Amino acid sequence: MKTRRLGTSAIAVSDICMGTMTFGAQTDEKMSLRILDQAFDIGINFYDTAENYPVPPEPKWAGRTEEIVGKWLATKDRDAVILATKVCGPSHGWLKASQRAGMTALDRHNITRAVEASLKRLGTDYVDVYQTHWPDHDTAFDETMRALDDLVRSGKVRILGCSNETSWGLMKSLETSRRRGLAEYQTIQNNFSMNNRRFEDELAQVCRKEGVSLIPYSPLAGGVLSGKYNSGERPEGARFSRYLEMGGRQAAMTRRFVGEKPLASVERFLAVAVEAEMSPVTLAVAWSKQHDFVASTIVGASHESQLAEIFAASELELDEETMRAVHRVTREIMYPMG
Question: Which residue in the list 53, 130, 217, 243 is annotated as catalytic?
Fold first, then answer.
């Protein structure tokens, strides 16, 4: 499997990263461990989790995903695994975290408490990549970056990353770190898929010019690009089938991912996959990896039966005609997710 550097750091990772956000809720421990083992066996060395997993976040299972990953990590040579986790952003905004009674923020207090709890659940004395899960633009950037820098200096964290960040937020953080002589963000973890190419509007250029790597999540647009929601289907147990029933923020998210325009776009991508003689899942993962600003694409699975089509993209490079075909769909239906 190909490897790429994370930002300007010394860390090289496989160009596919195994995500874990369903582990401990939708995916039980036994299946989670099997998925992790199969990913390791094909050469994936990069694994992503968070203190707020599994999702959707609920206090009753807060931190369960990290516990499962920690149990698995104990069976491996620690140096063979590049491990990423995240600290929750503020709970007074778009999402209430499952940790610390929903009183989270990106201040020194929360960052310190979060990393200590994560290290304990993961059963390790350091994490390779420590990320802010979502922005806290109302907390002083100096405080956030100083607290994160202290973790790097102490050896508890190797490099830093952010997630769900804006161009302004990323540049402000980099400017703060450079002005103060602090550790900088080397990665950004944002949504990026054939159905959501907004990252290319501005953030891709920031990454290229500032030496930051994207580690995109949701390359299948929450499973939508597999085609399983087309023709009005709502598969039992699938994420957006469940989210519709939950209402609130989850239902709103479903309408964005499984609306008329996203499904129309998927219909065209399914035809591209047929022409390229591959699964639409394989197409979507391979497409995500094939960008100069991407270091490693985060994939997820709730069952081991989903892995074969994902892993088929590990050594695949799409030809120019297939890449042009994908781009034609983008021009026909721009910003299908809004």
Answer: 53
